Task: inverse folding
């Protein structure tokens, strides 16, 4: 009898538990995040406040903390001499002597699956407004607004706004806006805006400006992206590095593993990115030394100013293809970009200009005969517009006074077996102060002023190896 009674009681309890389990509502993670709102909180320290131990479960319009305080979030204003802590999202203005932290304990007791669900439901902690702190501003989610500190700013899921820091700024996702720091700016994905700091890192793409001593990004966006929208990226610094440069790099040293944009610097390092079916053209390196060059040349020539001139050029092929001949498929010209280092000298004392040094940029256009590598007609004829700048010295000893010659030159050439001959004409503009005017033919202009200048046509002819 007692045994039957015990079994009956156990059965009733078991049925009751089953009914409760089947009838119980399965809550989503977001169901845990319903917070009540209160007008104001006064706090000395977390737990010692008008909200008591449960102040982290309330959102407040205003929060004033003698040392530190914790809330679910603040709507308009929060002040603390040490720190403002928020478990959820906040807006308005947060001011703290040391730190503003949004998202503390926000993922407490949640599994990874529940955290992912919160992110999908766009319920991650965030900040909209202004954060001012002495040492740290930290947002577990997205910061939409301004973060200002003498130390570091961090937005775990990305930033949209202005981040100013004495040491560094970090955006865990995309950054849209401006980051300015004394040491570093880091964005893990897209940077759409401006980074200004000693070192700037954009994780995946840069569609904006990096200004610093060292700049690093995977892709500098530009017109070679083949995108339906206009993009522009610029790295401006002492050392610029990009895996792929479709935009602009301007610096002392520029490095791009795949270069379809523009490099302007003292030293440009790049690898060719030949025609791949989508992008027809390589980029343009402009610099004194271009490492990774193709179609480099040595030139010896004579001009109307100097009897002996020599040039060494470095650059790249602008429209090479993967074909055996490297000839372009649709273009009628094989095009190269060439940077020329120029020296000139006169062994005779009768010449007015004794020596010269300078730089020139050439765009070479070779006529394509066919796609065949063995075709002798390929690159047999060429013409080349160029711009050149040279310092002219009218005495053997170096003269530092203004004596600058700029030229617009057009050459035409014909290839023989292993060398080519060419002739050219150029328009010369000579700017000088303490020098004598040059004795030239075909003079168009000669004026004396604070900066004296001459304008005339000249000629050149030589060989290209």
Result:
């Amino acid at each position: 009898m007692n045994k039957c009674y015990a079994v009956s009681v156990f059965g009733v309890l078991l049925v009751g538990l089953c009914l409760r389990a089947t009838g119980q509502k399965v809550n989503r993670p977001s169901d845990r995040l319903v917070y009540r709102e209160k007008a104001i909180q006064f706090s000395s320290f977390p737990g010692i406040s008008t909200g008591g131990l449960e102040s982290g479960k309330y959102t407040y319009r205003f929060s004033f903390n003698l040392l530190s305080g914790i809330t679910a979030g603040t709507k308009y204003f929060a002040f603390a001499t040490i720190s403002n802590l928020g478990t959820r999202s906040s807006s308005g203005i947060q001011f703290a002597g040391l730190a503003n932290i949004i998202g503390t304990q926000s993922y407490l007791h949640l599994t990874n699956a529940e955290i992912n669900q919160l992110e999908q439901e766009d319920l991650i902690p965030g900040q909209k407004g202004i954060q001012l702190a002495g040492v740290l501003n930290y947002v577990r989610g997205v910061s939409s607004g301004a973060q200002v500190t003498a130390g570091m700013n961090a937005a775990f899921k990305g930033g949209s706004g202005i981040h100013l820091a004495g040491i560094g700024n970090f955006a865990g996702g995309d950054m849209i806006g401006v980051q300015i720091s004394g040491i570093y700016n880091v964005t893990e994905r897209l940077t759409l805006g401006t980074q200004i700091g000693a070192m700037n890192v954009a994780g995946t793409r840069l569609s904006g400006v990096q200004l610093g001593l060292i700049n690093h990004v995977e892709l500098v966006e530009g017109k070679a992206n083949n995108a339906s929208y206009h993009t522009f990226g610029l790295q401006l610094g002492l050392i610029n590095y990009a895996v792929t440069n479709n935009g602009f790099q301007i610096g002392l040293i520029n490095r791009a593993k795949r270069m379809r944009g523009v490099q302007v610097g003292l030293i440009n390092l790049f690898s060719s990115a030949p025609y791949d079916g989508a992008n027809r053209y390589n980029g343009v390196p402009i610099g004194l030394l271009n490492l990774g060059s193709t179609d480099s040349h040595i030139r010896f020539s004579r001009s109307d100013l100097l009897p002996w001139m020599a040039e060494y050029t470095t650059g790249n092929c602008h429209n090479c293809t993967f074909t055996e001949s490297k000839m372009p498929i649709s273009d009628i010209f094989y095009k190269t970009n060439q940077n020329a280092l120029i020296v000139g000298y006169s062994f005779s004392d009768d010449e007015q200009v004794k020596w010269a040094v300078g730089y020139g940029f050439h765009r070479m256009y070779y006529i394509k005969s066919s796609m065949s590598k063995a075709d002798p007609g390929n690159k047999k004829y060429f013409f080349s517009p160029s711009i050149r700048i040279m310092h002219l010295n009218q005495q053997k000893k170096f003269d530092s006074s203004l004596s600058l010659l700029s030229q617009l030159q057009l050459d035409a050439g014909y290839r023989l077996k292993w060398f080519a001959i060419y002739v050219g004409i150029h328009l010369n503009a000579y700017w000088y102060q303490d020098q004598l005017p040059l004795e030239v033919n075909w003079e168009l202009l000669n004026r004396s002023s604070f900066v004296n200048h001459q304008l005339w046509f000249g000629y050149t002819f030589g060989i290209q190896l």
Observations:
- Helices lie at 2-23, 112-120.
- Residues 1-31 have pLDDT under 50 and may be disordered.
